[in-house]
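Aim 2 progress update. The chain analyzed this quarter is reproduced below.
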Amino acid sequence: MTNSQQLAVVRGMLRDWYSARCGDPLEDVSEAILIHDGFYCGRKFGFKDHRAVWFFEEQELKIYSADGTFLESCSLEDASLPDAHETTTLKMSESKPAERHAADDSDSQGEPARRAA
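Predicted C-alpha coordinates:
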Protein backbone atom coordinates (compact mmCIF):
# COMPACT_ATOMS: atom_id res chain seq x y z
CA MET A 1 0.00 0.00 0.00
CA THR A 2 1.42 3.40 -0.93
CA ASN A 3 1.69 6.28 1.54
CA SER A 4 -1.21 8.11 -0.12
CA GLN A 5 -3.37 4.96 0.07
CA GLN A 6 -2.52 4.54 3.75
CA LEU A 7 -3.45 8.14 4.45
CA ALA A 8 -6.74 7.71 2.55
CA VAL A 9 -7.52 4.65 4.68
CA VAL A 10 -6.67 6.54 7.90
CA ARG A 11 -8.91 9.46 6.91
CA GLY A 12 -11.70 7.01 6.06
CA MET A 13 -11.30 5.21 9.39
CA LEU A 14 -11.48 8.52 11.21
CA ARG A 15 -14.54 9.65 9.25
CA ASP A 16 -16.31 6.32 9.88
CA TRP A 17 -15.42 6.31 13.58
CA TYR A 18 -16.70 9.85 14.07
CA SER A 19 -20.00 9.35 12.26
CA ALA A 20 -20.62 6.05 14.12
CA ARG A 21 -19.90 7.56 17.56
CA CYS A 22 -21.17 11.10 17.13
CA GLY A 23 -23.85 10.70 14.46
CA ASP A 24 -22.65 13.70 12.48
CA PRO A 25 -20.47 13.85 9.38
CA LEU A 26 -16.87 14.77 10.09
CA GLU A 27 -16.21 18.33 8.96
CA ASP A 28 -13.68 21.09 9.62
CA VAL A 29 -10.73 18.81 10.26
CA SER A 30 -7.27 20.24 10.82
CA GLU A 31 -4.35 18.03 9.89
CA ALA A 32 -0.66 18.32 10.71
CA ILE A 33 2.39 16.23 9.86
CA LEU A 34 4.21 14.82 12.90
CA ILE A 35 8.00 14.94 12.88
CA HIS A 36 10.09 13.50 15.74
CA ASP A 37 13.88 13.90 15.81
CA GLY A 38 13.78 14.90 12.15
CA PHE A 39 11.84 11.84 10.99
CA TYR A 40 8.26 11.56 9.76
CA CYS A 41 6.20 9.69 12.34
CA GLY A 42 2.57 10.30 11.36
CA ARG A 43 -0.29 12.77 11.28
CA LYS A 44 -2.33 14.63 13.86
CA PHE A 45 -5.99 15.41 13.24
CA GLY A 46 -8.11 17.89 15.15
CA PHE A 47 -11.85 18.40 14.97
CA LYS A 48 -14.54 20.01 17.10
CA ASP A 49 -14.60 17.73 20.16
CA HIS A 50 -11.96 15.08 19.51
CA ARG A 51 -8.43 14.71 18.22
CA ALA A 52 -6.57 11.79 16.70
CA VAL A 53 -3.00 10.78 16.01
CA TRP A 54 -1.94 8.33 13.31
CA PHE A 55 1.40 6.69 14.04
CA PHE A 56 2.99 5.68 10.72
CA GLU A 57 5.48 3.09 11.98
CA GLU A 58 2.95 1.36 14.23
CA GLN A 59 0.16 1.72 11.62
CA GLU A 60 -2.17 2.77 14.41
CA LEU A 61 -4.76 5.52 14.79
CA LYS A 62 -5.38 6.69 18.36
CA ILE A 63 -8.42 8.82 19.16
CA TYR A 64 -8.72 11.18 22.13
CA SER A 65 -11.41 13.41 23.60
CA ALA A 66 -10.93 17.17 23.62
CA ASP A 67 -9.52 16.99 27.17
CA GLY A 68 -6.88 14.44 26.10
CA THR A 69 -8.54 11.31 27.46
CA PHE A 70 -7.67 8.24 25.37
CA LEU A 71 -10.82 6.79 23.78
CA GLU A 72 -9.90 4.18 21.20
CA SER A 73 -7.16 2.72 19.06
CA CYS A 74 -7.64 1.38 15.52
CA SER A 75 -5.09 -0.66 13.57
CA LEU A 76 -4.54 0.11 9.91
CA GLU A 77 -4.01 -3.63 9.36
CA ASP A 78 -7.70 -4.18 10.16
CA ALA A 79 -8.83 -1.68 7.53
CA SER A 80 -9.36 -2.29 3.85
CA LEU A 81 -8.13 -0.30 0.88
CA PRO A 82 -10.51 2.39 -0.29
CA ASP A 83 -12.45 1.60 -3.45
CA ALA A 84 -10.69 3.13 -6.45
CA HIS A 85 -14.02 4.65 -7.55
CA GLU A 86 -14.84 6.10 -4.14
CA THR A 87 -13.53 9.56 -3.39
CA THR A 88 -13.25 10.77 0.17
CA THR A 89 -12.62 14.39 0.96
CA LEU A 90 -12.32 16.12 4.28
CA LYS A 91 -12.69 19.84 4.64
CA MET A 92 -9.35 20.92 6.05
CA SER A 93 -8.88 24.20 7.82
CA GLU A 94 -5.97 25.89 9.50
CA SER A 95 -6.25 26.08 13.26
CA LYS A 96 -6.09 29.52 14.79
CA PRO A 97 -3.31 30.05 17.35
CA ALA A 98 -5.86 30.84 20.07
CA GLU A 99 -7.58 27.49 19.50
CA ARG A 100 -4.49 25.34 20.06
CA HIS A 101 -4.46 23.21 23.17
CA ALA A 102 -1.75 24.16 25.67
CA ALA A 103 -0.38 20.59 25.58
CA ASP A 104 0.31 20.97 21.86
CA ASP A 105 3.01 23.54 22.66
CA SER A 106 5.24 21.20 24.64
CA ASP A 107 6.69 17.73 24.22
CA SER A 108 6.24 14.79 26.59
CA GLN A 109 8.96 16.11 28.92
CA GLY A 110 7.43 19.57 29.23
CA GLU A 111 9.97 21.24 26.92
CA PRO A 112 8.64 23.76 24.40
CA ALA A 113 7.89 22.11 21.07
CA ARG A 114 10.12 23.07 18.16
CA ARG A 115 8.26 24.12 15.05
CA ALA A 116 9.53 24.46 11.51
CA ALA A 117 9.55 27.94 10.01
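Strands lie at 30-36, 39-47, 50-55, 60-65, 70-75. The mean pLDDT is 77. These observations will guide the mutagenesis experiments scheduled for the next reporting period.
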